[in-house]
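TA notes. Do not distribute before section.
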Amino acid sequence: MRFDSVKVSLPLKKKFMVSKGGAEIKTNILTIMNNRYSGEASGSVYYGPSIEILEADIAHGLDILRGEDSITQGTLELITLSDIHPTAKSALTGMVLNYLSGETEKYPWEIVGLGSPVGIRSSWTVGIEKPADMIKAIRESDYPIIKIKMGTDDDAEILDGLDSVGGKQIRVDANGGWSCAKAEEMIYYLSKKGVTLIEQPTDIAFLEEWRHLKGRCEHVELFVDEGLGSLDDYENAAPHVDGINIKMEKCGGIVAGTEIARRARKEHKKVMLGCMVESSIGIAQSVYMSSLADYFDLDGPLLLQDDIANGIRYDKESIAVDREIIGGPTLKRELIEKFLSS
């Protein structure tokens, strides 16, 4: 068995901004097994980890795999329990899961006992820009589900501009950029604009206040994202939120993500599957576990100038997998060579 990792610098269609940072090029790491089966590590521009930490942890994880006599379904658990960063775990898990799929000729979701991916409708994200440009982007978008990044001093102007937007389902992500006082105000006014889903209104430190921030806006659902990585994180957050945003890079891959999602559904919490700025290699695990989710925010590949793999298809908000997805998405070799980073 051969294991490799490569660093790629992926240009975005335009600079992508959130309340705590932005990027024009995203540097991610691909893990590749037997020159075919791949995973992707994509850290947060603001929260990390650094590319150096990712490289070191992926190298350590690959050494663990090289020490195994064989790669089996138990290897997924081995990776999940290893002492490396969750983002590195996710890349290794995706690679191994795709390998197991290819070797058994089963669909990846069947390997982990999940249902087929059907009916996936993702939001499309409008990053932070000048308010007029954001409203223009929302109005002109072909996507019916829009997630707006907020959490700056321009929020009031964006709020006013939403009156000129029609025919869209609007969601809001403040990325923890609001104080409790501003969050309470924004939740109220956004609810009047028809917004029913708000993600990370404040920093995770004020999570216990979220129920109070909603006031009488019971139809608004508050989702936690930042600070949600493990099952312990979920248990701490659950009493205070309506839903959770699970990202493979934060929880460590589909094994841990599935455990969190199943617990949340058992406790009648809503589940969203989110992503970083990454290719369809990175979002593949989220697509595989889509049967456990209520909402999807999987537009990462749409933010890139070029997706670097085939196998997962976008038709505006709808996401589908090719019948040939056994073994996972296939890399576009010419683009990998183009975007290789030293």
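Switch to the second chain here.
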Amino acid sequence: MKVTSVDCHILVVRERESSPLETALDNVVVEIHTDENITGIGEVESNPWVVQAFIHSSGAHTMDHSLGKLLIGKDPQQPQAIWNYLYEKSLLAGRRGAGINAIGALDMAIWDAFGKYEKQPIWKLLGGTQHSAITPYASLLPLGYTLRSYQGSMIEKIRWARFAGFKAVKIEVMIKGPHAHPGLQESDDAIVETVAMARAELGPDIQLMVDVGYCWNDWKEALRVIQRIEKYDIYFVECPLPPDNFEDLGRLSRACDMRIAAGELLTTRLEFEALVRNVDVLQPDVGRVGGITETMRVVELAAAHGKLVVPHCWKSGIGIAATAQIAAFAPNCPYFEYAPAEVSDSPIRRELVTEVSKLKNGQFPLPGLPGLGVRLNPDAMQKFSISSANPYVESR
């Protein structure tokens, strides 16, 4: 099997009625076509136009060719070798950041084509599983431009997740710091209050995770607040400090009893090597870290250090399907992030792919279809596809 062509589609929700924190309002979807009439698909949570440039634009230097051009003629049955080749040949502009994000989307598509060719789900190609099912946590992003409306939206979505049967829920408490919801810049007391409201609505039997979105710079301030919410039985606190502040993450993790989770923005296992000793839970985003190939290297790194992996995921059903394959394989992955389409504010999340898994007793069955196990909805692709021009730039 050989790659014959690579397509890169930019999707945009033209009417932006959703939350400014909703990153699924745009997307980049790649398709890998082969001489066996098999197409693999992938995506990544990154700037679509920058990723598209890495895939389609070549420079003059031998380490600066387009990733799409480099893929032509490669065999998708050798994803690890392809990953190493793409990394080596894109060193000038790649190595980290969006260059790795682009490789991640392509790697996801390569594994999808490989699985379809072998007529196997990807987790079987990775080596099988010890799991009988996989457990998602409902990742809930509230809306609201005041604290009360934000909290009210959170309660509504928690109530939906509880009645839907989820065993675990994560709330996005994005109300303080540089990445707070627009209009909100609240106190540490408000964070504690919001967590208390979430636990009261969930009851005692559902796991609760909390994402505070890098809201603190001082690890001692973070520690004081985390100690105040420990009584609400939190499974982990995600991203309490800036993503590259590994040393302070370590100080925080060692000082508190609660698990500290981080890593959603990191690229390659090389960055995770700097993080792994400093947190309890590693959160690679399957596309952003470099694809399924690189995520598996992070899984192995975490296992070697006795750490958990709970992958980050926030785009469409493509990324969710890839994350589910990791959750199915990795023995140190108790949960994976799942943004329910039913309460998503992004029509791309709701419409882009077909989804077949149904929640039963808080779990999904192991993925059973070949490759990623999802298909693109052609109507949604047509509806959201745009030219390469960036409408956010044009609108200024």
